[in-house]
Amino acid sequence: MTLEGGETLKTLPKARWIWKKLYQYALDRGQVIGLIGGGSLLDIGGFCAATWKRGVPFISVPTSLIAQVDASIGGKTGINFRRGKNLIGVFAQPHAIWVWPGFLESLPRSELRSGWVEVFKHALIAGGNLWEAVQPISVEKPPPLPLLSEAATVKVRIVQEDPLEEKRLRFVLNLGHTLGHLWESLSQPTKRPLLHGEAVAIGLAQEAYLSHRQGYLPEATLQNILTWLEKRQYLTPLPAFSWEKCEKLLSQDKKIRSGRLLLPLLRGPGEVAPAVEVGLQTLKKAVHWYRQRYGGAD
Questions:
Q1: How far does the chain reach from its first CA to its final CA, in angstroms?
Q2: Does the active-site annotation cover 288?
Q3: How many angstroms separate the CA atoms of 60 and 37, rounded?
Q4: Among 121, 122, 155, 212, which one carries the catalytic annotation?
Q5: Going by fewer Cβ within 10 Å, which terminus of the chain is more open, N or C?
Q6: Which CATH superfamily, name and number, covers 108-298?
Q7: For 131-165, how does the pLDDT look when each residue is reduced to its tens digit (9 = 90+)?
Q8: What CATH class is the domain 1-107?
Q9: Would residue 54 show up in a list of annotated catalytic residues for this protein?
Q10: Which residues does 258 contact at the CB level (< 8 Å), separation at least 6?
């Protein structure tokens, strides 16, 4: 089966089409589904495999940088619903993940740049040598194999420690994603929808500012993060939004527990507070700060 990639793939009609094909092929639980593609294909393909006959084994072969370093790892599968990211889905681990860096040589420039944001995010989480390694890199070419492997290993270790987010340790992997998913969703109907990494870059800047505002992140580290993103031209104006629409989307965030929105906040490279309660009005101030600094009309 061949499907178009991209975020528009992750819909209920597309999932229904895949299930119909699995029915026609009489696919059973003694067989294996191979998923070859980027993050969106792995999300919906893993979801359909996990729900077909209560679970058919699948193998992931990620072909994009985002998928190789992040989306293929961790067992999160799903589809979007009513403009909310990944609201329908299950945890389902692939039987194997096969990574071939050669796929990255054929990626469009925009997709490669998008993937580097997840590498940067993992460097922020891990700190140490990985943080130092990403400082001078160019986001115009694929990462060398050792850097790719080290960035992916950051997520592997966290997922092994908290596979289902029950300890909330895995929340750290959502750094930049609470607000990043917001801008990704709001940009979809526009002439230039944001790629996942582009939206997460904006979210990282806003959530780094929020971490500083809440007293977690020193000013110098905030400026270091912003400078890295600015030099690589990630911090673009926000898509058009109304705060009412933002609140509606944020109210469905998957990190909400008992009505409380819990965010990972940065203390510095290698140190993240995984689950800090943050009110919507506090998030609004971070969005306002970004709009004032980098543009975007509400």
A1: 41
A2: no
A3: 8
A4: 155
A5: N
A6: Dehydroquinate synthase-like - alpha domain (1.20.1090.10)
A7: 999 999 999 999 999 999 999 999 999 999 999 99
A8: alpha beta
A9: yes
A10: none
